[in-house]
Structures are given as structure tokens and as C-alpha cells.
Amino acid sequence: MAHSYTPGLRVSKMTRVTKERRLPLRGTVLVKMGDKITARDVIARSELPGNVHPLNCCGQLGILPADIETALIVKKGAAITKGQALAQSSSFFGLFKNRVDSPIDGFLESASPITGQLILREPPIPVEVTAYIDGTVTEVFADEGVEIETTGAFIQGIFGIGGERYGIIELGVSSPDQILDESMIKGDSKGKILIGGRRVTLEAYKKATESGAVAIVVGGFENFDLKKLLGYEQGVAITGQEDIPTTLILTEGFGDIAMASRTFELLKANEGRGASVSGATQIRAGVIRPEVIIPLASTATFQETNSKAGLLEVGDVVRVIREPYFGKLVKVTDLPPELQELESGAKVRVLVAEFEGKRVTLPRANVEMIEE
């Protein structure tokens, strides 16, 4: 039987997941090898230098730059508050005094006898990295962060927006082909990861956000609703940095697409459990997928190897990850071995597939399998 290799989304009842959690700059790691940690635990901490504010001290005081040291009334390195006097000078035998006050809270970093400027710096900005998942520390990167390992259910989506969140899984619908609309959102969904079916409406998303939901996992979402939600057209750059309180993960694609039954059943089986989610997505080089991670008992047995993993065969149902059929599930009917020329002139391996009564030819790089 003809076959080829293609990467795919993971939907696993039980697997091993590892995550590296690192600071953006060197700092202090707060945990050690073997520590059991929870998703909300801070595992490393550092500080970003505050913003710099130059202040023309000598110009305001009417003195020479060489005299700046004698004009200072606070020591270099000292903490300062907004409105505090930093330097002063006197004239006409001390009858008139001029002074320079601090425009910020922070500290006095330096005073230049060449330029006559004071360099003020705002307080440092604390940076903390949380564990993101419940698990065990399996490696420590000195002054940077750690690697964390957990065992549990793992689900990848095809597209998402919004950052990392932790919450409790709660079903919003009773079947994978049911639309999650506004009427199904409870008054208080604080800390919940709501599970939809075929699609979530924009009104339902907004109500879920107002009720405190941290994330929504659903089959599909209308592309024009996404534009309304974000206020701009989503490009091909990495997502996950959007300023939204409720992360949105699509397991199937854009439009009215029912969630895959096995994905829905897996989420249903874990209702009431805590889970970590991330909407970060990058489809091009360096693929990043939105994800749901549900830590489970480490004593559970599971099989991580799959001899067929990644092997695409005639009869397989795969998902299209490029336009014009982005998000569609298609059935492979043929895998021609020869290269075929596209409209662009490129020669690539293709597959023939069927969906909704249509027969289409697609580059094999434009589809991916859904892996167990």
C-alpha cells in the first residue's frame, strides 16, 4: 500500500510531556531537581533594568558641569522619590537658591562632570516564570530555568490565540457537533476551561470572558469573528501574545466544524480536572501548536511508541493546514509516487483526496495527520 510520512497533531490519552521554562535574562532559579511543583508555582525570578531618564541638572541650576558633584544633595546609587530635591545651587551670596527635583521614583545612577547630566533610573521590573504545568523538575539550567516533566493527556489544536492559562475543564455542550452559544454560558465560569463542540459564537466568547473563563476549547470559530475580536486581521506571525483574558483554541479549524469525537470524549472524560492551556500558534517553519495538557496519575501505564506514527496511507483522514481548504478533513484516495508541477512551477509530491463530494489534489506538505 502506498504511504508517505507527514507530521501531525497529537491527541493522546496518556503520554509524557516535558517543558523547558526559562527566564528572558539570567536570574535566580527557585526550585531544584526532583521537586514536585504545580502549574502556578514560580520556578525562577529575575529583574529587568528600569527605564533611564537623563536630567540636565547643570542647565537648570546655572552651574558648570564640573561643579555638579558639589551641587548634589543625594548620593549616587541612592533611592529617590518623585519631587525629591536632587541638587541645588545658590547665587547672590546665598540669597537665591535653585534646585532640581526628581521627576520619577527610582534611584540616582550617575552624575556626569562632563555633560552636567544626572542619569536617573526607574525601579527594576520584576520578571517571574511559572511552572505552567504540574509535574516534576527533571533538569535545572543554572540561573536560567528548569525542565519539567509530567504524565497525562495531551491535545494539540490547529490554531489558537491568547497566552498560557490554568483552569478546570468544564463541558459547555453535550456533544462534539453542538454549537456553544451565549445561552450555554453560566453566570460564573471563573477559572474554567470551557469545552465547546462545533463552534463558539462571538457573543458566547464575550460572555465567557465576562464570567471569568480562562479558556475555550472548541472545534471551530468564524474567521470574520476572529477579526472582530482582535480588531485586526490575524497574520502568519506567531500568536499567543494577544491581550485577551480568555485563550481560544480551535481543534479543527475555521468555520462550522465539529470537534473530532475522540478529542471531545477525551476532554469529557477529564471534566473537573485541572489543565494547562496555551494558544501560541506558528504554522510555518518552527511549528508551534496550541495545546491542552491534563496531568494525570504517573502510575498509569501508556504506550508512547507507534509503528504507524506519521505514516500517511490511502484511506487515512487528514487535516489540511494551508489555504484554500485550511482546516478541512479530507480522505486520502491516492498517493502518486511521481512529482507533479504546481501552478507556481514548483515540483512536489502530492496526494489526491475527497471531501464533501469534491476530489482535490494537494501538496503533501499541506496536510497533517492526527496522531494518537
Task: Walk me through this protein's architecture.
With 372 residues, the protein is mainly β. The protein folds into three domains: 7-17 and 150-295, 3-Layer(bba) Sandwich (Glucose Oxidase, domain 1), CATH 3.50.30; 52-121, OB fold (Dihydrolipoamide Acetyltransferase, E2P), CATH 2.40.50; 311-371, SH3 type barrels, CATH 2.30.30.30. The chain contains five helices and 29 strands. The two termini are 21 Å apart.
Shape: elongated
Rg over alpha carbons: 28 Å
Poorly predicted parts: 1-6
CATH topology of the largest domain: Glucose Oxidase, domain 1
The percentage helix is under 10%
Task: Assign the CATH class of the largest domain.
Answer: Alpha Beta
The tally of beta strands, per DSSP, is: 29
CATH architecture of the largest domain: 3-Layer(bba) Sandwich
Structural domain tally: 3
How many alpha or pi helices?
Answer: 5
Strand count, sense and barrel status of the largest sheet are: 16 strands, mixed
Strand content: 35-45%
Structural class by sheet pairing and helices: mainly beta
Mean pLDDT: 88
Q: What is this entry, summarized?
A:
The chain is mainly β and about 375 residues long.
Topology overview:
Blueprint: E1 3-5, E2 8-22, E3 28-29, E4 36-37, E5 42-48, E6 52-56, H1 57-61, H2 68-71, E7 79-80, E8 85-91, E9 96-101, E10 106-111, E11 117-121, E12 125-130, E13 135-141, E14 145-156, E15 159-161, E16 165-171, E17 192-195, H3 202-210, E18 215-221, H4 223-230, E19 247-254, H5 261-269, E20 274-278, E21 291-295, E22 311-313, E23 317-320, E24 329-334, E25 340-341, E26 347-348, E27 350-355, E28 358-363, E29 367-371
Parallel strand pairs: 2-29, 16-17, 17-18, 18-19
Antiparallel strand pairs: 1-22, 2-14, 3-5, 4-13, 5-12, 6-11, 7-10, 8-9, 10-11, 13-14, 14-21, 15-19, 16-20, 20-21, 23-24, 23-29, 24-27, 25-26, 27-28
